[in-house]
Amino acid sequence: GQSLEQPSEVTAVEGAIVQINCTYQTSGFYGLSWYQQHDGGAPTFLSYNALDGLEETGRFSSFLSRSDSYGYLLLQELQMKDSASYFCAVWNRDDKIIFGKGTRLHILP
Amino acid sequence: EAQVTQNPRYLITVTGKKLTVTCSQNMNHEYMSWYRQDPGLGLRQIYYSMNVEVTDKGDVPEGYKVSRKEKRNFPLILESPSPNQTSLYFCASAGTGTPYGYTFGSGTRLTVV
After folding, report:
1. Which of A8, A86, A97 to mutate to probe the B interface, most B CBs <10 Å?
2. pLDDT tops 70 at residue B99
């Protein structure tokens, strides 16, 4: 079967660094994406990893290890506006894009 | 402005009354998809389309139909809605070379009573 596992909730302090992990099981893996969703809004695309390693986009970075079927999203210099839900998603060989259940990030002042 | 437009934003209907949720994108994207979002279950793919006249089932296709007669439009049809289809629905599109980078519509909150 296909599945993605990510923590349901994570709490961090403003200005700190937080890592949201995602492990996946899928047939024919192409890549791992990350999306952000604020309450009442639509998901927005953050990053994509097809190859092993770290991709950096401003305060956000995403990492992938294909051999471990594992990835993470790293958020640095946390701001209150980063309070949101974060979803990992895999693109598989059937051209399906499967989402995890999401991680709600709480940021404390 | 590049966008995916869904209508309506909110809809309350009765069991068994056929309805259509429209989705249109202006980015010339080949890949379009419908998802439903329920608390604790994340986003689950209903149907997707790689291009005109090409559609495939996602993980939860039962009770839904789609069509892709034009590249820009991808309507979601509920022939006989039931209360378990009460949900938040999102349409999304992406270029074929980059189906990992979706642009989502604003969502449709459907309530079936």
Report:
1. A97
2. no
